[in-house]
Amino acid sequence: MSSLPLTTIQGQPSWPIKSSLVKGWLTKLGGHLGPVQFQLGRKIVQPYSVAPWAEEPLAAGSPAILRALRGDFFCCPFGGNATPWRGEQHPPHGETANASWRPASLTRSGARVTLQTSLATTVRKGRVDKFISLIDGHTAIYSRHILTGMTGPMNVGHHATLKFPAQPGSGVISTSRFIHGQVLPEPFELPENGGYQSLKPGAVFRSLQRVPRLDGGQADLSLYPARRGYEDLAMLTADPRLPFAWTAVTFPAEGYVWFALRDPRVLRHTVMWISNGGRHYAPWNGRHTDVMGLEDITGYFHHGIAESAQANSLSRRGIPTTLKLHAQRPTTISTIMAMAVIPKNFDRVASMIARGDGVDLVAANGRQTHAALDLSWLTPPAPIAS
């Protein structure tokens, strides 16, 4: 084990990690993983968003999360957290997305390299250990967080944020089977505050291709970029019977796909944060465009711990919106985010099938590609949902 020096990249002191096919940087502030570069054949692809103000000074009092905003980061508790809960007042997306993580270590075991950092939380006292692993020959990020010393309900999540090519519909979004899809029940943005949304609050949908809009029409959330000038949020609840849940974005013209895998009994939902220039207040100023967050969580939309721990429209239906933490029993949350080259005419991911050393990604039109993965990463002891 050896200490790892910090490198400043796009405004943030960060720890680098590299394998034969992937290179990334983890910010000390907030533990945001980004940028990340994937070697896909002869291409180097950098799919994650970095906020356009990354190297600009922000207004005094701006939360740390806005200064670091990039890539993927772990949220504990997930969401805005504007409402205190039992004396706990967490920052937006929790201390894990805002505080400074302890110095990192880098270890290698065979083909696997692992970057480890830790954070002692103070709002709810405990500890979070972060493990980012890469494997030579895999175009994948293996991310794991272990929570210890905390007790009670907690909403958690990953906040993976992708930057799409600017051409409308350049990315095709698809997911594994979901049992509930809904637009955020309350307004996500208000014109009087300089924000605009296009989707109908609270609308329930069964297909990404038909989601009600405020103007009475239907939006197709499977194609993006779209709806320039608007900011929207919807959430999908995965079928918990699946061996693993997945979200994918196929980029047919670019010749590759990004995808994420998780245990749907641990991370129940995927929040779709659709950010296409709909915020005209600082630091957004209408310039955060062609970005989509595909955020795997257990929580109640983007609200925070109070709304997730209290009875809500999902928990009343028996759909968990928190995990139950136990001080003497660690809670492990694992995810895999990966990329793969796709053949010509691969239209969109319709299914993923575990096979051999990874997964087969099968398109709706029958075309296929294979990604080498260590699927055992997803099966550590799981927490108990409440």
Q: What would your notes on this structure say?
A:
β10 and β11 form a beta hairpin. Helices cover 3% and strands 43% of the residues. The C terminus is likely disordered. The protein is globular, with a radius of gyration of 19 Å. The protein has a single domain, classed as Beta-galactosidase, Chain A, domain 5 (Distorted Sandwich). The protein has a 10-stranded antiparallel β-sheet, with no helix packed on it. Strands 7, 13, 14, 16, 17, 21, 24 and 25 form an 8-stranded antiparallel β-sheet that branches. A 5-stranded antiparallel β-sheet has the order 2-3-4-5-6, with no helix packed on it. It has 2 helices and 31 strands. With 386 residues, it is mainly β.
Instruction: Specify the biggest β-sheet.
Output: 10 strands, antiparallel
What's the number of domains? 1
Q: Please estimate the helix content.
A: under 10%
Q: Based on DSSP secondary structure assignment, what is the total number of beta strands? A: 31
**Intertermini distance:** 38 Å
Overall average pLDDT: 96
- By secondary-structure content and strand pairing, the structural class works out as mainly beta
Give the strand line-up of the largest sheet: 1-8-9-10-11-27-23-22-15-20
Secondary-structure arrangement, i.e. CATH architecture: Distorted Sandwich
Name the overall outline: globular
Topology:
Layout: E1 2-3, E2 7-9, E3 12-18, E4 22-27, E5 33-40, E6 43-45, H1 64-68, E7 74-75, E8 105-109, E9 112-121, E10 126-135, E11 140-148, E12 152-154, E13 156-158, E14 160-163, E15 171-175, E16 178-183, E17 204-205, E18 211-212, E19 218-219, E20 223-224, E21 230-238, E22 245-251, E23 256-262, E24 269-276, E25 291-298, H2 305-309, E26 323-325, E27 331-341, E28 349-355, E29 358-363, E30 368-372, E31 384-385
Antiparallel strand pairs: 1-8, 2-3, 3-4, 4-5, 5-6, 7-13, 8-9, 9-10, 10-11, 11-27, 12-26, 13-25, 14-25, 15-20, 15-22, 16-17, 16-21, 18-19, 21-24, 22-23, 23-27, 24-25, 26-31, 28-29, 29-30
